[in-house]
Amino acid sequence: MNDEIAKPSSTDIELAKMLGARQAFGLVAGRCTAADAAILRDIRDNKKYLGFSPSWNDFCEQHLRMSKGHANHLIRQLNELGPAYFTLAQLTRITPDEFRALGPAVRGNALEFRGEAIALIEENAGRLTEAVGALRQAGEPEAPDARPPARSKLDRIQRTVEKSLRSLEQLARDPAARPEANIVLYRLGREIRRLEEACAGRR
Q1: Alpha-carbon dihedral 107, 112, 116, 122, rounded to 10 degrees
Q2: Is residue 195 pLDDT above 90, yes or no?
Q3: Are 84 and 106 in contact (CB under 8 A)?
Q4: Which residues contact 67 (CB under 8 A, 6 or more apart)?
Q5: Do residues 10 and 69 lie in contact, with contact meaning Cβ atoms separated by under 8 Å?
Q6: Which of 156, 129, 130, 132 is nearest to 142 (CA)?
Q7: Model-wide pTM > 0.70
């Protein structure tokens, strides 16, 4: 009796190659790259993991050695911020919020600084770090004593609220996290109503 060995499908072979490439990216960069995040997105969105695991959660834990939440977080960053964020983050340790604040200063694979386009490559890591630091300082608010204390405090509260709203918007885009987002929004609405009643009572 001849036992036939099941041959792996072309999708399984492709996925094995992608996992190998992802490991190579991790060894070279030491951190997640845009290519790494793109691989995760392709595997998840096209359900290529099904030949290895019954669910995306199991695949992340068994084959990627990361949680599903972390993998989804990296994919969201790629979708929102683009490949340039990952490259700049490797070179300068910039945060997602700081990258958003740079806005049009990041164009393609370069950072515009003082009329010069600095390419996002390892050789420019020092210059990029200096440029990001200068741009970060330029975007910081004025010292509190330069404005009336009440106005300064309100500005800080407004920035905190806007940052929280952006985070909630990102959370709400993930179907798996939507129930948690609804709970947070419910609590937030309840607290706002309570503050409104408290303010009305002081008039």
Answers
A1: -80
A2: no
A3: yes
A4: 60, 61
A5: no
A6: 156
A7: no
